[in-house]
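hey
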């Protein structure tokens, strides 16, 4: 693995996107950035541009309107990339699964590499999910096994 590939694994840039929901998981993601948890000490940087991101953190259930935006963000993120679905809503649709406009979890639109459980997911679980995502990102960059389920 070259210098640039190793640097991208050691200092990942994260793009956070909320597809809807109650924003409980979004608040917990922001708690990860506070001095109590301080994920920036690991080199993790929260950015707003998908063209610079290594990891996509997605919260909330996917609805008919947000699926196009989510798909565009996924396609604009350079390969190799890792997708983290945070919370029950991002995994299955959660309490919103019977709503008329909800498709379900994130995996209905883009392949998901890591699922973080919880409603709302705790910051410790989110940090563990990011560490698992970094391991999968390193495996993808070194030409190892691809963990993605494939595009749907």
């Amino acid at each position: 693995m070259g210098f640039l590939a190793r640097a991208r694994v050691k200092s990942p840039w994260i793009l956070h996107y909320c597809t809807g929901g109650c924003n409980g998981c979004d608040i917990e993601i922001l708690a990860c950035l506070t001095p109590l948890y301080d994920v920036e000490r690991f080199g993790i940087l929260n950015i707003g541009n998908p063209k610079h991101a290594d990891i996509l953190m997605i919260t909330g259930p996917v609805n008919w309107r947000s699926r196009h935006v989510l798909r565009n963000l996924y396609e604009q993120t350079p390969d190799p990339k890792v997708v983290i679905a945070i919370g029950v809503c991002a995994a299955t649709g959660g309490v919103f699964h019977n709503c008329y406009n909800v498709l379900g979890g994130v995996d209905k639109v883009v392949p998901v590499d890591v699922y973080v459980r919880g409603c709302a997911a705790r910051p410790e679980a989110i940090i563990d999910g990011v560490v698992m995502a970094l391991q999968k990102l390193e495996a993808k960059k070194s030409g190892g096994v691809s963990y993605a389920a494939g595009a749907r």
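The helical segments are 3-10, 24-32, 66-76, 88-92, 123-141. The beta strands are 13-18, 45-47, 55-59, 62-63, 82-86, 102-104, 114-116.
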